[in-house]
Amino acid sequence: MQLYLDTANINEIREAASWGVLSGVTTNPTLIAKEKGVDFRQVITEIAELVNGPISAETVSLDADGMVKEGVEYAAWHPNVIVKVPSTTEGLKAVYELAKKDIRCNVTLCFNAAQALMAARAGAFIISPFIGRVDDTGVDGMSLIREISAVYRQDPEISTKILAASIRHPRHIIDSAIAGADIATCPFKVLQQSMRHPLTDRGIEQFLADWRGRA
Ligand code: E4P
């Protein structure tokens, strides 16, 4: 399973890219807004120069024509830009039209397997089920990944990638992989947490103490 970073923060992206683990980046309007005053096009192209993989840039129109117009514009910024559209019927129309122009789409805000099947049928490159937000409602978010994975596996015509989104902790990453996700997009903090273990720290301390005390 590939790892993407879910952020528009250039310092976080530069740091995680230096670890050699990043295969792509996802952004959304909230993440872009967090980076006060940045120019959308500039930040997306800067990310595309740092990470050699799909970079999701989200549309803000509610109608298909508007999404297609934005998508065509974003795709011209860099060949790795993936156009993010919501899981709505207008989003499906936009995916269908953009796919005809060879522009790849990430269908976001997916909360059930039927949406995921429809997105795949329309030609989505990526489907983004939001597991953390499902967990927040008291329902098991991971079952969404399992269901989509079963539905996609059953249909050899579907090549849409399952991207586990709204990841909240390292366990979500591992469970997503086991449930059949192709990609997990993670906040920087969760990638950092994934490499932390008290026994690793204690082991390092012990090794260094023994090294220093050798005869
Ligand atoms: C995915 O592409 C979204 O940007 C993201 O994972 C949303 O996660 P959140 O629920 O933490 O906002």
Overview of this protein structure:
- There is one protein chain.
- This protein is of the alpha/beta class and about 220 residues long.
- It has one domain: Alpha-Beta Barrel (TIM Barrel), CATH 3.20.20.
- Helix content is about 50%, strand content about 20%.
- The protein contains 11 helices and 8 strands.
- The protein has helices spanning about 10-20, 30-35, 40-50, 65-75, 90-100, 115-120, 130-135, 140-155, 170-180, 190-195, 200-210, and strands spanning about 1-5, 20-25, 55-60, 80-85, 105-110, 125-130, 160-165, 185.
- An 8-stranded parallel β-barrel has the order 1-2-3-4-5-6-7-8, surrounded by 8 helices.
- Helix 4 crosses helix 5.
- The protein starts with a strand and ends with a helix.
- The model has no long low-confidence stretch (mean pLDDT about 100).
- It binds erythose-4-phosphate (E4P).
- Erythose-4-phosphate (E4P) binds near residues 6, 28, 130, 133 and 165.
How do the strands and helices of this protein lay out in sequence?
Elements: E1 2-6, H1 10-18, E2 22-26, H2 29-34, H3 40-50, E3 55-58, H4 64-75, E4 81-86, H5 89-100, E5 105-110, H6 113-122, E6 126-129, H7 131-136, H8 142-153, E7 161-164, H9 170-179, E8 183-186, H10 188-194, H11 198-212
Parallel strand pairs: 1-2, 1-8, 2-3, 3-4, 4-5, 5-6, 6-7, 7-8
Bound molecules: erythose-4-phosphate.
Erythose-4-phosphate (E4P) binds next to helix 7.
